[in-house]
């Protein structure tokens, strides 16, 4: 599963979500973290929304609805499993 997370340095919500994604062991996840400070379009689109998470599918990128910062790794695994292509 390929995930793209829009983030920026110093965002504690972003860091928390990244840490939980990297702690998932029940599925193979390729996580690409994109710093919105490096791209004007990303900055304008996501500056008030980060972290923003997309899954790459055969049809293109699909937005994953925002999860609670208090979500457990187990709960996050279940949510991401819904987006896993079979």
| Structural class designation | alpha+beta
Q: How are the strands of the largest sheet arranged?
A: 2-1-3-4
Biggest sheet record? 4 strands, mixed
Outline: globular
- Uncertain stretches of 5 or more adjacent residues: none
CATH class: Alpha Beta
CATH domain topology: Glutaredoxin
Structural write-up:
It is a single chain. Strand 1, helix 1 and strand 2 (30-35) form a beta-alpha-beta unit. The protein has helices spanning 12-23, 40-46, 73-81, and strands spanning 2-7, 30-35, 52-57, 60-64. The chain is globular and about 35 Å long. The protein contains three helices and four strands; from the N terminus they run βαβαββα. With 86 residues, it is α+β, with helices and mostly antiparallel strands.
Question: Can I get a quick summary?
Answer:
With 86 residues, this protein is an alpha+beta fold.
Properties at a glance:
86 residues, alpha+beta, Glutaredoxin, 4-stranded mixed beta sheet, 3 helices, 4 strands, 33% helix, globular
């Amino acid at each position: 599963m390929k995930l793209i997370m829009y983030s920026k340095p110093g965002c504690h919500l972003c860091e928390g979500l990244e840490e939980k994604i990297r702690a998932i062991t029940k599925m193979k996840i390729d996580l690409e973290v994109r710093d919105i400070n490096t791209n004007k379009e990303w900055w304008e689109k996501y500056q008030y929304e980060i972290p923003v998470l997309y899954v790459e599918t055969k049809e293109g990128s699909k937005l994953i609805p925002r999860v609670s910062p208090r979500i457990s790794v187990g709960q996050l695994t279940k949510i991401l499993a819904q987006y896993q292509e079979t």
